[in-house]
Specification:
mainly beta; Methylamine Dehydrogenase, Chain H; 6-stranded antiparallel sheet; 4-stranded antiparallel sheet; 1 helix; 4% helix; globular
């Protein structure tokens, strides 16, 4: 019955028959997607800027894009280094845009001044590693090779940038005031992926290439890495979010579930995603006590709401979004922004809870697949 209801709602949304759908009386969602400029390809991480604009990283065209929700106008900035592959995006206190260059060789952390359009690059080198051992294993890279795959990044409370190197199996820190980069490797090279900072300034990462360790924390002073293993042999956390109580929430991409890790008790818990095991949950964002995430292998993708207090799950189809949202953020009105990289779209989910709509800027007409 649930599958029939979901299929019907999805069909209605795609046809534009209705724009507000919810599985509970007190929560509804209006979704709109915009086709990004033709020059941009494979938009990945979105970002809400302090000026209200929405940014995205277009990996295949080495472009950072800016979208003004009020005027629906676009502006693009092409990186100085071709084939950089911008991926993660974050804003600093001065309004600069920091990004990871996942395709560049050597990989680098980039900065864009959106006022001037000027790019600055900070290349990552093997000589930036902390002493090894005891903090990491020897990497064994060939002579003359370069680190690979700077993937995701976050800024801590001091303004330092922490980033994962999925391709190189390492974790890095950039101090913007000096330009100094330091990198470290977990004792087991297991594909550092997403990174978030807790209230104490401690970086947390997901590790996706083995079940021996799936969550990691980094000592921000020594760069020493501590890992935690889930009780399930096939666990593969992808994205993470940290709630105000410093609990780690994650999407388990392989097990089709949303998970919780409590650093105080070191206990893992998981709840099945409503679409089932093969929905491949991915991008997620925490809005207060609620986690929003995407089921990427649904057609169309589904936006899922998980109440961390009641453990209630609800889901809505996302028209025009196939292969799902790999990263999600929320704006000051707590509405959700995401990218659909397979269909080159930027999307917004306007949330209504308790009969109160937070903002009325979203269109009532859903996007369609191009």
């Amino acid at each position: 019955m649930a599958n029939i209801r979901r299929s019907l709602l999805s069909a209605l949304l795609v046809l534009g028959v209705t724009a507000t759908v919810g599985f509970a009386a007190d929560v509804s969602v209006i979704i709109k997607t915009w086709k990004i400029p033709q020059a941009s390809q494979y938009p990945h991480d979105p970002m809400v800027h302090s000026d209200g604009s929405i940014w995205y990283a277009a990996r295949y065209s080495s472009t950072l894009g800016r979208f003004d929700p009020k005027t629906e106008q676009w502006k693009e900035f092409v990186t100085d280094i071709p084939n950089s592959g911008p991926h993660g995006l974050k804003e600093d206190k001065d309004g600069n845009i920091w990004f990871t260059a996942v395709n560049a060789n050597p990989t680098y952390i980039g900065k864009l001044n959106p006022k001037t359009g000027e790019f600055t690059e900070y290349p990552v080198r093997f000589e930036d590693r902390v002493p090894c051992p005891p903090l990491c294993l020897p990497t064994g890279e060939p002579q003359g090779s370069s680190p690979k795959g700077a993937h995701s990044l976050s800024l801590d409370q001091k303004g330092n940038i922490w980033f994962s190197m999925f391709g190189g199996g390492m974790i890095g820190r950039l101090v913007p005031s000096t330009g100094k980069i330091t990198i470290s490797r977990p004792t087991v090279p297991v594909g550092p992926y997403d990174v978030q900072i807790d209230s104490k300034g401690i970086p947390w990462f997901t590790l996706v290439r083995t079940n021996k360790a799936v969550i990691a924390r980094v000592n921000p002073e020594t760069m020493a890495v501590r890992t935690y293993s889930a009780p399930w042999p096939d666990a593969r956390p992808r994205r993470i979010q940290i709630t105000a109580d410093d609990v780690i929430w994650y999407t388990d991409h392989v097990r089709g579930s949303i998970g919780r890790f409590d650093p105080k008790t070191e206990k893992f818990d998981e709840w099945p995603s409503p679409g089932g095991e093969w929905t491949r949950p991915y991008g997620m964002v925490a809005v207060g006590d609620v986690i929003w995430y995407s089921e990427t292998w649904m057609d169309p993708s589904m936006l899922v709401r998980f109440d961390t207090k009641t453990k209630e799950l609800q889901s809505w189809p996302v028209p025009g979004c196939f292969d799902g949202a790999y990263y999600m953020v929320h704006d000051k009105d707590k509405n959700i922004w995401f990218t659909c990289h397979d269909t080159n779209r930027l999307g917004k989910a306007e949330i209504t809870e308790g009969g109160v709509t937070r903002t009325s800027t979203a269109s009532s007409a859903p996007g369609s697949r191009d």
